[in-house]
C-alpha cells in the first residue's frame, strides 16, 4: 500500500480525497476493479458477440452483477446496495463495458438514472419501495425524460400530469428509453404546470407493467443491441399522489442533477469500449505481419496506438476527477461534462482506429472491433449530446470568469 | 473441535498471461506481470467458505507464503468470505527457492498453532505444477488426505471425498483432522461481492515469520542447469 495512507492512519478514505489518488487507486478499489475485470473477461466478453447478434438481454449476467452489488453501487447497505462511492462505480462501469457495452448501459441506467434520483430526492418510504427491490439484479429501472418532440430541449416536455382526486393522471409519449422492455419501474418527467415552462416539470415513479403504460416497438439500433430501447406511451396512466418524486416543479432540476452523475457512468462506459478497442488493436499489431514484420513495428500503427492510449488515459483521468469531486461533495458539473465529452469522443476515435489497424479483419464480425465501433457511437449522443456537453462546459467556464 | 479451516492461497502469474522468458534465460519475467490467486486455491477457498455457510465449520483462515504482494492474494480470499489471514513473509533468495517442502512444513506448524480441523489446498499451483504440498502436509501431520477432490461431504467426524483419479472416480471416507486438495470440478468459485470487498479491508491479516514457526526455509534442491530458452530446435519423435 502506498505511503499516501501511512501518514493518515485511521482516517477513513472518504475524507482524504486528493488528486494523488489518481496515481494509484486505494486497495479496495483495486480489488473491486480486478473483480469486475475478471467477471467481464469470463462472463461477458465470451458472449458479447452473441448478445449483440441476437439482441438478447443478459438477464442471467445482470442478476450475477446484482449479487455482486454492482447494480446498486452507491446505495447504502441497509437498502441492499454495496455502499461504495462513485469512483468505485466508475471503475466497475469501465470494466463491465470493456466486456460488453450493452451490459454496461443496463448497469449504468439502473445505478445513475433510476436509483440515482430516488436516492437523492426520494422519501425514506420511496427509497425502501423503489430502490431496495432493484439492487439484486432481478429488477432494473429506467429513466424517461426524452420525447419524440424533444431530446436536448428537455425543458419543453409535453407529457402532462394532472391531479384527479387522489391520483396523478399522466398522458404523453417518451422516446428512446433504455432498458424499458426489461424494466420493472420508471422515473418519468411530466409537466404539471405548462405555464411555468421548465419550472413546471415534475418527476414521477411508475411501476412496470402498469395500466395506462404501454411500450412501443423495440428500436433496431446500430449498437448496444442487447439493451432494449423503445417508446413509453402513457394514456391516462393513474398513479397514487405519493408517487411524485421530489417537490412539485422540481423535475427539471432533478433531471439535470441526475444526468450530471449519469455522465460519469456513460463516460466510464465509453472508456471501457475505447479500452477494449485498444486491447484488440494492440494485440493484433503484435500478431499480424506485413512487409516481413509484425505491423506493430510500423510507425503508422505505432502513432495510432499512441494517440488511442493518450485519448483514453486523459478521458479516464477526467472521469476519475469528476468521480472524486462528486464523492467529496464538491461541484462536479463541469468535470462530468468534460469527462463524458472526452470519453465518448475517445471511444469513437479508438474504435475507428482499431478497425483501421485491423484492416479487413476489423470490418467483419469475427473480430470485436466492428462491434466496438457500433457500440461507441451512441456514447456521443445519449445522456447529453456532445454539443450539449460543450454548452454545459462553456456555461461553467463563463460563470468562473464573470467579474 | 475448533471448527477452524486453514486454506492455502498462492500468488501466481495469472493464467491468462502469456509467459515470457527472461533475456538471461534464468527464468520467467515476473516484474510488472499480472499475478492472481492460483485457480485451484480459489476453488479451495470457495469450498471452505461454502462449509462455513452450511455451518459445518466455524472459521476460515487464509494462509499465503510469499513476498509483500501475497497480501493481495489473502485480501482476495477475505473478499470471498475467509474470516482472517496469515501472511508468512518470504522474500528475496528464500522466495526464489521456496517449494512444497517448506510450505508444507509451514502449513503443518500453523495447523498445530491454530488448532485447525481441516486444511484445504489447491491440488497444484499453475506455475510449478508440483502437486506435492497437500500430500507432504498430511504426511508431516500424520493426518489422512483426500486429494484431487471433486466432491467433499462432511459426515460427523469423518469426511467423504470423491477423488478424480486416472481410472475415473474413487470415493473414500477419512477421519478428521484431514488435508484436502481441490480439483477443478469441486465447485465454481464465487466473484467477491462489493460489500465483501469493503468488509475485507477490516479483516485482520497477521504477519508471521517462518523462523517463528520453527521452519528452515533453506532449499534441499540445487539448480544444476537452466534449460529455459535453450531448446530452440524442434524435437524429433
Automatic annotation (TrEMBL), chain A:
It catalyses: butanoyl-CoA + oxidized [electron-transfer flavoprotein] + H(+) = (2E)-butenoyl-CoA + reduced [electron-transfer flavoprotein]; pentanoyl-CoA + oxidized [electron-transfer flavoprotein] + H(+) = (2E)-pentenoyl-CoA + reduced [electron-transfer flavoprotein]; hexanoyl-CoA + oxidized [electron-transfer flavoprotein] + H(+) = (2E)-hexenoyl-CoA + reduced [electron-transfer flavoprotein]. GO terms for cellular component: mitochondrion. Residues 27-138 form the Acyl-CoA dehydrogenase/oxidase N-terminal domain. GO terms for biological process: butyrate catabolic process; fatty acid beta-oxidation using acyl-CoA dehydrogenase. One of its GO terms (molecular function) is flavin adenine dinucleotide binding. Its cofactor is FAD. CDD domains: SCAD_SBCAD. Residues 249-397 form the Acyl-CoA dehydrogenase/oxidase C-terminal domain. InterPro entries: Acyl-CoA_DH_CS, Acyl-CoA_Oxase/DH_mid-dom, Acyl-CoA_Oxase/DH_mid-dom_sf, AcylCo_DH-like_C, AcylCo_DH/oxidase_C, AcylCoA_DH/ox_N, AcylCoA_DH/ox_N_sf, AcylCoA_DH/oxidase_NM_dom_sf. Pathway: Lipid metabolism; mitochondrial fatty acid beta-oxidation. Keywords: FAD, Flavoprotein, Oxidoreductase, Transit peptide. SUPFAM superfamilies: Acyl-CoA dehydrogenase C-terminal domain-like, Acyl-CoA dehydrogenase NM domain-like. Short-chain specific acyl-CoA dehydrogenase is one of the acyl-CoA dehydrogenases that catalyze the first step of mitochondrial fatty acid beta-oxidation, an aerobic process breaking down fatty acids into acetyl-CoA and allowing the production of energy from fats. This is Short-chain specific acyl-CoA dehydrogenase, mitochondrial. It comes from Xiphophorus couchianus (Monterrey platyfish). The lineage of its organism: Eukaryota, Metazoa, Chordata, Craniata, Vertebrata.
From TrEMBL, chain B:
Keywords: Electron transport, Mitochondrion, Transport. Residues 25-217 form the Electron transfer flavoprotein alpha/beta-subunit N-terminal domain. Its main location: mitochondrion. SUPFAM superfamilies: Adenine nucleotide alpha hydrolases-like. The lineage of its organism: Eukaryota, Metazoa, Chordata, Craniata, Vertebrata. One of its GO terms (biological process) is amino acid catabolic process. This is Electron transfer flavoprotein subunit beta. The electron transfer flavoprotein serves as a specific electron acceptor for several dehydrogenases, including five acyl-CoA dehydrogenases, glutaryl-CoA and sarcosine dehydrogenase. It transfers the electrons to the main mitochondrial respiratory chain via ETF-ubiquinone oxidoreductase (ETF dehydrogenase). InterPro entries: ET-Flavoprotein_bsu_CS, ETF_a/b_N, ETF_b, ETF_beta_N, Rossmann-like_a/b/a_fold. Heterodimer of an alpha and a beta subunit. Heterodimer composed of ETFA and ETFB. Identified in a complex that contains ETFA, ETFB and ETFRF1. Interacts with ACADM. GO terms for molecular function: electron transfer activity. It is found in: Mitochondrion matrix. Belongs to the ETF beta-subunit/FixA family.
